[in-house]
Amino acid sequence: MRRSNPFVAAIFFIAIFLLYTPLFYLILQTFLNNPNDLKSGFTLNWLIKLFHSPSLWEPLMTSLEIGILSASLAVTVGTLGAVGLVEFASLLPVSIQSLIMLPILLPEVITGLSLLLFFLLLRVELGFTTVVMAHASFSASFVYFIMLEQLKKLDPQMAEAAQDLGAKPHEILWKVTLPNIIPGLMGGWLLAFTLSFDDFLISFFTSGAGLTTLPLKIYSLMKIGVTPELNGLSFLMICISTFLVLLLVSKEQSRKWVLRG
Amino acid sequence: MDSKSTTTKPIPITAMVFIGWLFLMTFLPFLIILGMSFLERTPVGTLSFHFNLNNYIRSFQYIYLKVLFKTVWIALIATLSCLAVGFPVAYHLARSKGWMKQLGLVLLFIPFWTNFILRIYGLVSLLGNHGLINQVLLHFGIIKTPIEILYTRTGVYIGLLYNYLPFLVVPIFSSLEKLDPLLREAGFDLGANRIQVFWRIVIPNIKEGVFIGSLFVFIPMLGEYVIPDLLGGAKEAFLGNVMVNQFFVMQDWPFGSAIAGLLSVLLLITLWLQTRWSRTPGLKMEGLDA
Amino acid sequence: MGLKRIVVLVIVLGLVTTSLIYLRARKTSPPKLRVSTWSNYFPDSIIRDFTQKTGIKVELSYISSNEELFAKLKAGATGFDIVQPSDYMIRQMKALSMLSKLDLSLLPHLNHLDEYYRNLPYDPGNEVSVPFNWGTSGIAINTARVKIPAQGVSWSLLLNSSFPRQTSLLDDMREVFAGVLFLNNLSPNTAELKSLEAAKKQIFHIKDKVLLFTSEPKPLLLKEEIVIAHIYSSDAVQAHAQNPNIQFFIPKEGGIIWTDNFAIPSSSQHKLEAHAFINYFLNPDNALATVRQSHLATPNKTVKSMLSIEEKNDPNIYPPPEIFKKLFFLEDLGDTLPSLNQMWTELKS
Predict the structure, then answer these.
(1) pLDDT at residue C141 above 90?
(2) Model pTM greater than 0.90?
(3) d(Cα C110, Cα C175) in Å, to the nearest integer?
(4) Using CB atoms, which residue from A84, A222, A244 is nearest to B117?
């Protein structure tokens, strides 16, 4: 195949450069004495201060807890769905297919508001549990698709063959079935965790007054304008997110989902 | 296992758990918001269970239609700008090889896995009168007074372009990938020049991907409400802003729900268009297979 | 068949997860008293003192807007025992019986409140609310960039701006309309559609000259992206502390006064303890610390007498009597509110 023409290549590189500028600028600001002045010299003080500040640890722990629990919940539900539907996947009626796609397609504002109304009408107290449920509600469909593909690759005859060779049921589970689905489970879990960790809008609508995740904290700091602390948190958040994406990319099962956002 | 028998088998209980979950946590809330749109808010702020279409009639008033058309218009322009930038990017990616291609795709997506609010904050500190762009341009004497981008319509366009670009690149990229190189070569053999090959062979074969990709950025843009607020300075409301305003400021949940209903109808229309356009029936997201 | 085993495995994972969620949710289950407040109102130490003295454990959580509080309270099951709505929101919540009637006999320290704050238009006689602190909204000016007019600061400075794209308006329809109505020598609570319609046209004309609508102009003032801001006094005082050039004014035509209050939601399960909490912070010794933390004005006359001369005479916090006369509460517009909201939407369409 012939090489791309230079004009097209230039657009590509400029686009990539521009996509990264805002993020690199945030990182740079973290290390400036005066974040709004490029010539003010470098410092590590903001970051050191941040690590001693409760405004980092509390939201960070909340975000991690919510991420871990909602991802586990999503993996449970999504995997059950994939196991049950793997034989039917291509024959599903449009209504069920649409239902599965709905959480992926619905604009986030509508998802957030409808969940808020739902919880309010059920008189569920808004807070930790509602945010976990809300996050798991949109990430379960992603897990479903990942597990579906993983299970399609799973050869049922393998377990039978193992049985014929005299393997005990628990041996089949640990030595045959699990190694074959673990990558899918891990990929799905990581994807769900990342979606939860990065989420802003849905947490914004479904969190009670007392709960602050990291993105919510960043939003409120941005509104009241505490720049150094905000830049430190941004820097940390960028690092964590980049790490998570690289993990996702390193797993075959979740790789292509990274490219769908 | 006999594959023929699977069609008549009942859906197993494990699948019911998943479907039940989706029904409870996504579809039911969605139904509630739709149902709410047919109720009414009483003057004291409680709900009246008197089913009617008043909220929809109200939403067809001039000002709400104006907001609707403006939202659609801005989303359309932003989608087209995404296309203008996204197409060359996808084209370049499809033409690169091996690890370059992988790296390019990953590079394109890393920013989108950082938190949405952070990206907005990054843009705010970049575009402001005292932001990086103006600081640099002023420093080198390229401009005398700061150029105003933040809190203008341009700021909103930049925000939309920045946040939605990759979702358009991927579908175009994958349809370019699927394009059989032999087709192009055949075109050249038959004496077509590059421009003819591009318009007669490349474009017809990828237009579906382009269309689906455009829908996938256009639909969420319609529901956008943070970008007009934080990058547009809350001076121009999108449909999403009017909706949230009805919910939280006016406490008029039924009317807010009706606007959500309208947004959903727009969503359904675009999905329907997509199924008509796409050669494969149903909701299969063909263009998205990277 | 391998699938069955996956199901078992996944169900185990599900059970573990749900029990963890349950445990985590229980951990955050209501302590003795749940207080919903605004950030920066209560120093940590004073809450610890309260718990030590009364044995009542307190959990503070923060809201960012009255509307958020309202939406969450409407569910009736949020578990709050104390909320701190602003004046107009008290009126709205009171109308919907969302607040419980106060037992004034449990609030002996109420007599420290200035008479004025015991009979406010939105809640005469402290039926459901006790003012905690109050502030105003007006105009903050960066005096290094903008010369203060000799004839005094007027709303026209903001609304006929000679500083195009260097000003901001509050992103709140009532506040913005109030500013224009003041300029037109009308009451900020005018419900006359003709006057509101005229005000709308005026706002429409200056909309393009305003940089943005925001309820948090402080960071932009400090970064000098804007030089004149429509602002709440609490933010202005903080901005002034960081940059003395930023000064706050209540325009000569008049300004808005607001209060943040103590109230007990009708759903509270700990009304007795909630009264104890309110009474504790009416006690001048305890209230003084909160006033010094928030830099807001206190309705507590005993506390005010305990403040230093500079604190008492800070015109940004306690406007002098001749200006105080020109401060108005935003009152309920009733049926006119939806029309006003429609105008607001029109302005932004």
Answers:
(1) yes
(2) no
(3) 30
(4) A222
